[in-house]
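Fold sample X.
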Amino acid sequence: MDNLAFDSTQLEMQPRDAPEKDKQEQQEQPQEQQRAGGPEKQDRQQWSNGMEFLMSCIAMSVGLGNVWRFPFTVYENGGGAFLVPYLVVLVLIGKPLYYMEMALGQFSSLGSVQVWELAPVFKGKRERTQTLQPSSCFSRRYTVLDEVDDAWGISRGIGSPGLALSLCLGATWVLVWAVTCCGVKSSGKAAYFLALFPYVILFMLLIRGVTLPGAVDGILFFVRPDFGRLLDPTVWYAAVTQCFFSLGVGFGSLVMMSSYNAFDHNIYKDAMIVTSMDTLTSLLAGCTIFGILGNLAYESGQSVSTVVKGGSGLAFVSYPEAIAKFEVAPQAFAVLFFLMLLTLGVGSAVALLGNLTTLCGDALMPRAPTWAVSLATCLVGALLGLVYVTPGGQYVLTLVDYYSGTFPIFVLVAAEMVVIGWVYGLDNLCRDLELMLGQRPGLYWRLTWGLITPVTMIVILVYTIATAQRLEHNGRPFPDGAV
C-alpha cells in the first residue's frame, strides 16, 4: 500500500537535527510560525546525553507491572509454560512496537499527538483520545460507583478520601512535580536514581529471599510449567496484556521521550536493551517474590498456593506478611521494599505525566513555562487521584484499569500499526530510520511492521471484543451502568 503513503520528505515535521539542507530550510521559515510552537520549535529541550534517555526508558518500562503483576500472571497462566507465549509476543509485537514508537518520536521531534501529522486524518482522533479519555473516565465513575456500592451494601457510595492517604498522595505528586518541573533537564538527572535504585533493593531482597527455608519450593511453584495451558487462548491474551502493561507501549510516553533525542541517536540499541532488561527484571522479581512466599508457606505449614494473592494483594498483603517473619531486620527490609515500590511508581508516573506536559507545551500552551505546565498537570492528577484513596477506591481502580488502561490501548495500538505500516508506508518508515541511523532496517523489522504485528493486533482486538464479559470485582460483576 505504498501508493497511499505520505512521502517523509514532504512532511512539515522536519527533525531538528536534520542535515544542513534541512536546517537551512527551517531557518528560512517565518519567525511567527516558529514562535507559535509545534514542529519548528528551535528551543525544544534535549537530553543532556544518551544515557539519560536510556535510564528514563528503563524507569518507565521497569515498573510495578514487573514486581506484582508479572509473577501472579505467570502463576495463574501455566507457570513456566507462560514464558513461551510471553516471549513470542515480545518478539512479534513488543520489540517492534517499542522500536517503532522510538523512531516516530526521534524523527519528528514531536509529542505523541503532533507526530500524527504524518497522517493528518488520524491526528484529531488521537488527540481527543489522549486529552478527553481521563476526564470522561473519572466523571463517569463517580455516578457509576454509587450504584455499584449500593448493590453490594455500601450505602454511602465510594466514601470520602482518607486524610492520611490523601496526604501521602499529595506528597507523591509533589515528588513527581519536583522531578518534572524543568522538563527533561530535571527528569533526566533523576532517571539514574529512578532506574537503578529498584535493582539494588531487588537484588538485596533476592539474596535474602533465596537463603530462607522453603524458598526453593516457592520458586519451583512459580516456574513449574503446565504446557497444557498453551492451547488456551486466554493465556496468549494474558501474555499480550502483560507485555503492553510492562513495556508501556501505546501510551505515547515513548514517542514523547524519544522526541527529545538528537536526530542521529542510536535508538535501536536502546530499544533492544530496555526490552531485554524488562523481561529479565520480571523474571528476577518473580523469583524474589515467590522465594519469599515459599518461606511464608514453610513457616505457616501451608502450601504456596494458599498464601498467594493476586493483584495489589500480592504486593500489599502476601509480601508484607512474609517480610514480617524475617528473623533479621524485618523492619529494614519492609522499608526498603515499599521504597522500591514508590520509586517504581514514580518512574512510570514521570513518563506518563511527561506525555501530557509535552502535549500541552507543544499544542495547547506553547508559551507557558515548563514548570507551570507540569504544576497544572500534577494538580489535576492529584485531584483525580483522590478517588482512589476512598473506601471504594478499588472499585474505581478496577474500572479504570480495564476501560482506560487495557482495552483502549489495544484499539490505539492496532490503529497505530495500521496507520504507520499501511498508510504512512513501510518504505517511508524504513527510509526515515536509514536517514537517522545510517542503516536500513532488516527483514525481521519489515515483516513485523508491515504484516505480522498489524495483523496480530487486529486479531487480538477482534478476540477481545468477541470474548468480552461483564467486568467483575472480587468475584462480583459490575451492574450494567458500569459499562
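Fold sample Y, listed below.
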Amino acid sequence: MASSVRVNTREKPFVCEVCGKAFYQRGNLKSHLVSHSEEKPYACEVCGKAFARRGGLKSHFSVHTEEKPYDCEVCGKAFTRRNNLRAHLHLHSGEKPYACEVCAKTFTQKINMIKHLRAHAKEKPCVCEICGKAFTERYAIKLHERIHRNEKPFVCEVCGKAFTQVGNLTTHMRVHTKEKPFVCTVCSKAFNTGSQLKIHLRTHTEEKPFVCEICGKAFAQRNNLKSHLSVHIKEKLEAV
C-alpha cells in the first residue's frame, strides 16, 4: 500500500549513493545497485554472456531466438525490447525529450544525453592499452580494439563487405535495400543516416557551426571548413 501511495505522490525515498538515481521501492534500488558492481550472476546458457539483472538476460534471449515482438506502426521496423521501440519512435516524431543542462543540446535517448555530458566534463576513463586513445565508455574501447586486431565480425550477406561495428553494417545494408528512414520534417527529403539528415537540416536553419579561426568564415559542414583552410595554407606558402 505504501509503495502505491509513493507512486501517486511521485515520492522516491530510496536513492542510489553512487549516481543519485531515486526509486519508489527498496527492491528496485537493490536491483539497480548491481549495475554499479561487477557482479553479473545471470548467464546465458547459449553463449555464456552474463548480465547483472534477470530482465537483461531475458531480453538477451531474443538475440538467439530472433524474436522481435515490438513493431513500429509507422515504418514496420521490429525490436526485441519495448524501450528500443520507444526510442525509435522519436525518429519519426522528431521529439528529443532529453536536454543537456550545459549546452541545451537535445537527444532522443537519455543514455545518449548522459554520454554527451561526459564530453563537457572531459571524462574519458577507458584507455586503450595499445595506442593510448581514451574513451568515455567501456564498450567504445572494445569496439576500438577491433581496429588493432583488424577484426570485422559483421559481414554483409549481399556483397561480403565486412565491418567492425553492427551499426556500420546496418547503415551499409541501406545501399542494397535503398531504405532511407531519416526524413526531413521541413521538406520531406529522406536520407540513409541520421548524420546526413542533421547536415541537411542546416540548409533550412542556415546554421554554420564550423568556423575558420583565421578569418572567421563559417560553414555548415566540417569538410567544407577543411577545404577552406587549404586556401590559407596556400597563402602562407606563397608568402614565403
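Sample Y note: The longest strand covers residues 14-15.
Also: The CA atoms of residues 154 and 189 lie 29 Å apart.
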